[in-house]
């Protein structure tokens, strides 16, 4: 600083502080019709600083220029993203010339950000590129590494905004590699850019320096996550989201509830990809970190104060949201295991089960290895709590009833938790969604149950939880949900009917069923048909007219429902020939509908291929059966 | 024409209205004499974009000289009639600030004298609704009766304010198994005539102005939702049929303020340096989860208040019209394009209207 008196330097520092203050604080109060007033003022100050630096230090710069006359610019400017190791060209970063370049670069950086903020993108880009040029002459050092990263972050944002995602990616990936390179080679707490313009006594502590530097890099991760998302590289994007979260946690820069919700959401990404170990890890971390947000204020406290009330609401809601993510974890794990184990008629394939159990031992070792290589969350304080929570539920597919039941119980426990907040009165949609998940958990568990009587009881539980709601819901406001419920109820009843029949056949071993069983069977059969019919009625016009054209999203369910109604009617057991005749006629009518609809709407045929084929067959066969029955009735009369 | 001819489709209908050029209004669009669009038929509009002009098709396109009455007839008449028959109906007004939303919906200014020829869709809807009510009551020989209540709320920054009770704190959305989604604690005013309904509306509208200046919230950034609940009772042979329906009139925030929510594509969400938080990480992750759909997953981030409140009108079971207002000036090209694109996306949302008929008091 030889050529600059301390007074002059102090003046520059004051200007800088002033500019920062204008940009960050005062600009927020700028009037609507003059939105950038403070930023324009800040820009003027930055320009003055630039001029002062340029003129005062020019002699010094020439001395250290290493014989190069004028502008010591490297012949080729390295372009970011091409991954040539551009470190260490020109003068070393901590030389006086290097420092001067960094200072000028920093002013260019701030000018660039200022122009971008005031919507002058090209001017902003120019300043940021000037900063890059100045830095291009220096090697990376603890004095300038922060600037190296910041300017690239800004250029990444700038180019992404112009839809040039690859260009943005280049800058951000270079920032990433500069960070890693620096941490490997040096790693000392680097100078923060603001320190270029502070007087000695105001320099930052090492701790503060580290914090700011790490934050800049966390931002790089965060922007890269978005860039990869925009490029459609979801897996990579997920990894960077994960790293961002992990860094926030390690560096203690996070809001617990916000963090927990993000981790819980990330778990949903993993489970949709079938990566249950990662999913479970995110969820355990979410639960543990959400605990850091503190106790839920009591109801009494909430009534006393508005802020406590809001806090209570927030904490309860967000924890219930996390519980719902856990429910999905358990549900998907069970459903995926079911898919893995079922044979071609949807029953447990015991050969496959044995095979998988034998392979299990290897898998457990694999899990251990995978766990070591996977990204893990946790700071020292939380790591153990997260790990112990993970142990409460497995991430491997359950292979038998005992294992499935363990997963089910965890899921059911979270159902209870989630329902505590999302009560029917106040959160109808959420509450029903949770019940639907609960029902689905039962359904998946029932698959593993070998005792058919108990399996039937599980389905009965599903009916008990859904049926009253389906009846009570206002059809005007909850049309879609009601349709889902009707369909599910219809299928559940049908499943129960099949189970009853299998059981009865096993016991009786003949076709002669006792009247009690027949009554039961017919009841289940009609209940199923009733709900399918209710679903079909919900598609009709207010005057009760069946739509000529089925909307795409209900096309398949509507045709399937018709087909099922047809089958159910033909299965009803009756000793009265006239009732039999009625049933067969209704059955035929519905089969005919499927066939005729597909004839007039050929595009529908592909969506219900199997059902259509069977319907055609039945439309051919049923009339014969009906005629035989009629003949028998006539003969008896 | 083919779309319109397919008739009774329940998808959301879109009406585009082009306002006249502005003069001496103090708007930035003043004195802009060159146009960026032309209306080429009653349902097409051509935007003079480069290199090729683009044509957009809607259910109806109204040119600058279309009368207020004509707008009402094509947009609201049918919806008001449906409300009488037990359907829910919603009319949205969308567009850039200064594109004529208020003029279309209310009229030149908040005149209490609503016989003015320039009065907008809302006063005309009130008149028509009460005309129909009175006719229906007369026809039925008093066996039918109607009950009409209004509420008026504003959504600003994801907070709900009651425009009929400015003293109240922000309100919450709740759901009830019978009532659907509603704003808990919102004031409901009973009205018996179009004049009374209009009074409630103007009072709320004035409050909105006052609130926006005194409480530092901009009305161009807020959505205002005026809801009229209509209940009809009919007794035939000791059986009472009750029908409920809702008419929602929504003034959406100026489209230019909504850049954050939909027009941005590749823009990165920036970290706010002030609170050092990476606010939008959740949204990034959410987008990843959404891509891999088909599986059962839960998303922790909730719908916006507006879409939740009007869920029924967007893909639920209601009759919905969107009026997209555009300014023809070439300076507004960007905004006009995004408004037209929004309106086109809205057309893709399917609606299914269903009547609600509760039967009470069956013969004992």
UniProtKB/TrEMBL annotation, chain A:
Keywords: Coiled coil, Cytoplasm, Cytoskeleton
Gene3D superfamilies: Tetratricopeptide repeat domain (1.25.40.10)
Stretches for region Disordered: 57-94
Alphabetical GO biological process terms: central nervous system projection neuron axonogenesis; efferent axon development in posterior lateral line nerve; enteric nervous system development; microtubule cytoskeleton organization; neuron projection maintenance
Coiled coil: 298-351
GO (cellular component) term, any one: cytoskeleton
Stated role: Activator of KIF1B plus-end-directed microtubule motor activity. Required for organization of axonal microtubules, and axonal outgrowth and maintenance during peripheral and central nervous system development.
InterPro entries linked to this entry: KBP, TPR-like_helical_dom_sf
Keyword flag RNA-binding: no
Protein name: KIF-binding protein
Compartments it resides in: Cytoplasm, Cytoskeleton
Source species of the chain: Lates calcarifer
């Amino acid at each position: 600083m030889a050529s600059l008196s301390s007074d002059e330097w102090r003046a520059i520092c004051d200007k800088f502080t002033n500019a920062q203050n204008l940009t960050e604080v005062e600009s927020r109060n700028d009037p609507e019709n003059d939105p950038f007033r403070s930023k324009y003022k800040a820009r003027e100050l930055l320009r003055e600083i630039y001029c002062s630096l340029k003129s005062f230090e020019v002699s010094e710069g020439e001395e250290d220029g290493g014989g190069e006359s004028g502008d010591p610019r490297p012949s080729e400017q390295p372009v970011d993203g091409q991954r040539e190791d551009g470190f260490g060209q020109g003068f070393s970063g901590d030389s006086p010339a290097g420092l001067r370049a960094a200072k000028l670069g920093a002013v260019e950086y701030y000018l660039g950000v200022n122009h971008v903020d005031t919507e002058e993108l090209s001017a902003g880009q120019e300043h940021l590129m000037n900063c890059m040029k100045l830095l291009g002459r220096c090697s990376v050092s603890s004095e300038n590494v922060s600037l190296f990263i910041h300017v690239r972050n800004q250029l990444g944002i700038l180019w992404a905004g112009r839809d040039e995602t690859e260009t943005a990616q280049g800058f951000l990936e270079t920032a990433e590699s500069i960070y890693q390179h620096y941490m490997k080679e040096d790693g000392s707490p680097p100078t923060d850019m603001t320190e270029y313009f502070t007087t000695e006594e105001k320099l930052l502590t090492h701790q503060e320096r580290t914090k700011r530097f790490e934050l800049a890099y966390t931002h790089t991760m965060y922007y890269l996550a978005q860039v990869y998302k925009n490029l459609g590289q979801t897996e990579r994007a997920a990894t960077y989201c994960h790293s961002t979260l992990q860094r926030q946690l390690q560096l203690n820069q996070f809001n617990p509830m916000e963090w927990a919700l993000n981790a819980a959401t990330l778990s949903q990404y993993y489970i949709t990809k079938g990566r249950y170990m990662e999913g479970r890890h995110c969820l355990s971390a979410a639960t543990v970190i959400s605990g850091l947000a503190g106790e839920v204020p009591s109801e009494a406290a909430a009534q006393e104060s508005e802020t406590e009330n809001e806090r209570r609401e927030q904490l309860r809601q967000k924890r219930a949201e996390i519980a719902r993510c856990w429910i999905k974890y358990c549900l998907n794990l069970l459903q995926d295991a079911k898919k893995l184990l079922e044979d071609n008629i949807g029953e447990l394939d015991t050969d496959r089960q044995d095979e998988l159990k034998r392979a299990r031992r290897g898998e457990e070792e694999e899990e251990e290895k995978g766990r070591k290589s996977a990204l893990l969350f946790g700071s020292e304080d939380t790591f153990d709590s997260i790990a112990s929570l993970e142990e409460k539920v497995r991430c491997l597919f359950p292979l038998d009833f005992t294992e499935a039941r363990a997963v089910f119980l965890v899921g059911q426990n979270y159902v209870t938790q989630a329902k505590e907040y999302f009560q029917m009165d106040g959160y109808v949609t959420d509450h029903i969604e949770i019940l639907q998940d609960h029902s689905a958990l039962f359904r998946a568990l029932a698959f593993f149950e070998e005792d058919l009587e108990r399996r039937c009881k599980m389905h009965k539980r599903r009916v008990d939880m859904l049926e009253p709601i389906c009846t009570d819901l206002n059809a005007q406001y909850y049309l879609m949900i009601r349709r889902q419920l009707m369909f599910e109820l219809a299928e559940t009843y049908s499943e129960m009917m099949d189970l009853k029949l299998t059981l009865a056949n096993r016991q009786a071993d003949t076709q002669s069923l006792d009247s009690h069983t027949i009554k039961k069977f017919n009841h289940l059969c009609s209940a199923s048909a009733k709900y399918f019919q209710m679903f079909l009625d919900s598609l009709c016009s207010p005057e009760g007219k069946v739509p000529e054209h089925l909307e795409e999203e209900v096309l398949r369910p509507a045709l399937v429902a018709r087909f099922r109604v047809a089958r159910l009617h033909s299965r009803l057991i009756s000793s009265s020939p006239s009732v039999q005749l009625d049933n067969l006629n209704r059955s035929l009518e519905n089969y005919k509908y499927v066939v005729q609809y597909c004839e007039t709407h050929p595009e529908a045929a592909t969506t219900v291929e199997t059902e259509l084929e069977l319907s055609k067959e039945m439309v051919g066969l049923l009339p014969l059966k009906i005629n035989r029955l009629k003949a028998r009735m006539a003969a008896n009369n | 024409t083919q779309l319109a001819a397919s008739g009774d489709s329940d998808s959301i209908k879109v009406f585009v209205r082009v306002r006249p050029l502005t003069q001496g209004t103090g708007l930035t669009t003043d004195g802009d004499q060159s146009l960026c669009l032309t209306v080429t038929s009653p349902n097409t509009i051509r935007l003079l974009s480069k290199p090729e002009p683009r044509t957009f098709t809607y259910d109806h396109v109204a040119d600058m000289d279309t009368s207020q009455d004509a707008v009402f007839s094509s947009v609201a008449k049918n919806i008001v009639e449906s409300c009488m028959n037990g359907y829910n109906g919603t009319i949205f007004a969308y567009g850039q600030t200064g594109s004529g939303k208020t003029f279309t919906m209310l009229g030149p200014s908040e005149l209490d004298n609503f016989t003015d020829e320039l009065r907008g869709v809302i006063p005309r809807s009130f008149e028509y609704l009460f005309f129909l009510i009175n006719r229906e009551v007369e026809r039925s020989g008093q066996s039918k009766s109607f009950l009409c209540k209004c509420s008026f709320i504003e959504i600003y920054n994801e907070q709900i304010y009651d425009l009929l009770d400015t003293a109240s704190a922000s309100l919450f959305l709740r759901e009830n198994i019978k009532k659907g989604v509603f704003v808990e604690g919102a004031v409901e005013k009973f009205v018996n005539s179009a004049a009374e309904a209009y009074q409630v509306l103007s009072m709320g509208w004035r409050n909105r102005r006052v609130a926006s200046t005194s409480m530092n919230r901009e009305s161009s950034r807020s959505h205002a939702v005026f809801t009229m609940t209509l209940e009809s009772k009919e007794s035939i042979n000791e059986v009472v049929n009750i029908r409920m329906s809702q008419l929602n009139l929504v003034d959406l925030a100026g489209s230019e303020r909504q850049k954050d929510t939909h027009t941005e594509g590749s823009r990165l969400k920036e970290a706010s340096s002030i609170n050092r938080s990476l606010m939008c990480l959740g949204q990034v992750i959410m987008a990843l989860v959404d891509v891999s759909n088909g599986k059962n997953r839960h998303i922790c981030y909730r719908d916006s208040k507006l879409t939740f409140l009007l869920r029924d009108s967007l893909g639920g079971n209601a009759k919905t019209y969107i009026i997209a207002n555009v300014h023809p000036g070439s300076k507004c090209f960007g905004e006009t394009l995004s408004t037209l694109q929004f309106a086109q996306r809205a057309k893709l949302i399917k609606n299914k209207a269903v009547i609600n008929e509760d039967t009470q008091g069956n013969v004992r």
